[in-house]
């Protein structure tokens, strides 16, 4: 089948998210100008550069108590920093809890039973005990097509890795099974990996 998104699609559910999968989940922690912590998962997330290391995430929704965006973007606009926490399969329920549209005064760390720990290079909290956290300085926020679509880019200024994730000098994702987003309400875990050598190796 073929369809043009501007004209809609004939299926009962939008297939776009299911086509572009799997997607890593950036569990984004921020702190507002009043010092309140916020935590929310974003599946439009990825690494985008090696040197310096940089990441991005996109926010595509809006909350009534923010100016045409969500808490994460609003907080980053004010403070210029954020932290990306890596989601493991064992934390799926806590991650899902933080996806709720809580009032901006509510602490998602507390709602999900998670412990905030201060970052080292930025004024922000990270999640204690996650496989890895990336402390980031915002480099730009780009508004893209759509009323409330924003892409946030950040340079990684600090990296935390849980000790048990380092095996033979490598960060080993099989030690914690990363959670990824598929389409609709579907998720997947990484539990099997393989190597491919490039032709010019």
TrEMBL record:
It holds the Pfam family Flavin_Reduct. InterPro entries: Flavin_Rdtase-like_dom, Split_barrel_FMN-bd. Transmembrane segments: none annotated. GO terms for molecular function: FMN binding; oxidoreductase activity, acting on the CH-NH group of donors, NAD or NADP as acceptor. Residues 18-173 form the Flavin reductase like domain. This is Flavin reductase like domain-containing protein. It comes from Ascidiaceihabitans donghaensis. The lineage of its organism: Bacteria, Pseudomonadati, Pseudomonadota, Alphaproteobacteria, Rhodobacterales.
């Amino acid at each position: 089948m073929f369809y043009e998104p501007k004209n809609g699609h004939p299926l009962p559910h939008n297939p776009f998210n299911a086509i572009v999968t799997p997607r890593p989940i950036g569990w984004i922690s921020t702190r507002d100008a009043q010092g309140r912590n916020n935590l929310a998962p974003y599946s439009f997330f990825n690494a985008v550069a090696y040197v310096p290391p940089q990441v991005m995430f996109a926010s595509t929704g809006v909350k009534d108590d923010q100016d045409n965006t969500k808490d994460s973007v609003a907080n980053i606009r004010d403070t210029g920093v954020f932290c990306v926490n890596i989601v493991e399969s064992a934390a799926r329920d806590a991650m899902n809890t933080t996806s709720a549209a809580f009032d901006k005064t509510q602490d998602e760390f507390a709602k999900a039973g998670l412990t905030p720990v201060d970052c080292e290079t930025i004024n922000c909290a990270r999640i204690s005990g996650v496989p890895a956290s990336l402390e980031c300085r915002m480099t730009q926020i780009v508004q893209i097509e759509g009323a409330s679509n924003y892409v946030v880019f950040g340079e990684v200024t600090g990296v935390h890795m849980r000790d048990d994730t380092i095996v033979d000098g490598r960060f080993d994702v099989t030690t914690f099974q990363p959670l990824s987003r598929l389409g609709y309400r579907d998720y997947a875990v990484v539990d099997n990996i393989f190597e491919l050598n490039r032709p010019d190796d």
